[in-house]
Amino acid sequence: MRMPSIFITGTDTGVGKTAITAGLTAILRAHGRDAVPMKPVQTGGIPAGNQILAEDVHFYQQVTSLPVTPTEINPYCLIPAVSPNIAARLSETTIDLDEIEQAYRRLVSRHEVVLVEGAGGICVPINDSFTFADLAKRLNLPLLVVARPGLGTINHTVLTVRYAQQCGLKVTGIIINGYRAETATMAEKTNPEVIRALTGIPILGIVPWIDGLNVETGQAANLTEAIGNSVKWPEIFQGGLR
User: Fold this and answer.
1) Is 232 a catalytic residue?
2) In what order do the strands lie in the sheet with 171-179?
3) pLDDT tens per residue across span 57-113
4) Mean pLDDT over residues 156-184, rounded?
5) Interval 169-186 mean pLDDT
6) How far apart (Å, rounded) are the C-alpha atoms in residues 66 and 73?
């Protein structure tokens, strides 16, 4: 049975979407599934000679071997570290939504499951009138929401879920990322149950803080093991596992 692909979004930038995407891809591949990640638009790209290095794609490659080239999974990589619509304007580039969809369709036709990672939160604009929520809907993908553990995450997570649902998107589950059990406050301890009660969406994992993990420098530490031990990953792809 073919596994369903998924769109991974976050409640904000810096919540760990890239780490979760890379780790889930690695786990699926380790279990014999032909999984690949996709980063439709990367901003804050790093100039490297005649090319622009996509930091998130580089991190994917550090975590697991991939049978794809960077350009196959990252159609647009722009240098300005701003929202994609502004980065494209500053770079004098037009982000072609048809090109993004075609890149996704090619991956889906060649691989069993594609994990599409957004940029920032779900409302971040790709162009001046089209957001990542619109992209998830265009690709007909359910959402996995990555959230912070700390104070304020209830508001951010509930708003993300409610907005996604208003857009007609299915939210499969929520992952809390970067939880420090040894120093957790009462808010951090109780946030997951409050979020679950307010949204009706299952918390499919509470990923611990991982010392040494650094997406910017490509340091994966024990990411795959941590996600494998803390995330109910088969439930994310339910219907495709036997």
Assistant:
1) no
2) 35-38, 113-121, 6-10, 143-147, 171-179, 203-208
3) 999 999 999 999 999 999 999 999 999 999 999 999 999 999 999 999 999 999 999
4) 97
5) 97
6) 10
By the 10 Å C-beta count (0-12 exposed, 13-18 middle, 19+ buried), 24 is classed as buried
Give me the catalytic one of 17, 39, 137, 189. 39
Q: Which of helix, strand or coil describes residue 156?
A: helix
SS3 187: helix
In degrees, to the nearest 5, what angle opens at C-alpha 234 toward C-alphas 176 and 228? Answer: 55
- Report which of 34, 74, 82 is spatially closest to residue 55, judged by C-alpha positions: 74
CA distance 169 to 103: 21
What average pLDDT does the segment 154-175 reach?
97
Going by the DSSP 8-state scheme, the letter that residue 231 receives in this structure is B
Q: What's the Cα-to-Cα distance from 135 to each of 13, 26, 30, 104, 150, rounded to whole Å?
A: 17, 24, 29, 11, 28
The predicted pLDDT at position 241 comes to 37
Q: Rounded CA gap, 22 and 153, in Å?
A: 23
Q: From the centroid of its chain, how far is CA 159?
A: 17
- Name residue 35's beta-bridge partners: 113
Across the strands, what pairs with 10? 121, 146
Q: What is the pLDDT of residue 50?
A: 82
